[in-house]
């Protein structure tokens, strides 16, 4: 028990939610930027085809999965924050 808090500090949880939301947005923006460049890069041949049509799409899916997982974490934090607020208001 730190500083007499049992459960969580809703303001601190809101800050965490904001940071998670920011990270999700950054991953989406970065993924879009990289995807645009990966599709337009001047690169020909079998290695380019492999990268553009196999390797990069796999990595792009991975980035999207990370963003989705962080979104789930944010939603968990939000539920816990709201639960703490309901409990504290009684």
Give me the secondary-structure category: mainly alpha
The Rg value, from CA coordinates, equals: 20 Å
**Can you write the helix and strand succession as a string?**
HH
Q: Count the DSSP helices.
A: 2
Oligomeric state: single chain
Indicate the overall shape: rod-shaped
Report the helical percentage: over 70%
Q: Which range does the strand content fall in?
A: under 5%
| Beta strands, count | 0
Distance between the termini: 21 Å
Low confidence ranges = none
User: Biggest β-sheet: count, sense, barrel?
Assistant: none
Integer average pLDDT:
93
Structure write-up:
It contains 2 helices and no strands. The chain starts with 9 loop residues before the first helix and ends with a helix. Helix 1 (10-40) runs antiparallel to helix 2. The chain has helices at 10-40, 46-88. The chain has a domain at 10-17 and 52-90. The protein is an all-alpha fold and 90 residues long.
Keywords:
2 helices, mainly alpha, 90 residues
Write the layout of secondary structure elements.
Elements: H1 10-40, H2 46-88
Helix pairs in contact: 1-2
């Amino acid at each position: 028990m730190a500083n007499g808090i049992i459960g969580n500090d809703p303001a601190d949880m809101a800050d965490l939610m904001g940071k998670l939301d920011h990270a999700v947005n950054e991953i989406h923006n970065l993924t879009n930027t990289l995807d645009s460049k990966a599709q337009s890069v001047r690169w020909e041949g079998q290695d380019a085809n492999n990268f553009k049509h196999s390797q990069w799409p796999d990595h792009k899916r991975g980035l999207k999965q990370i963003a989705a997982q962080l979104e789930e974490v944010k939603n968990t934090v939000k539920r816990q924050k709201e639960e703490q607020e309901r409990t504290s208001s009684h």
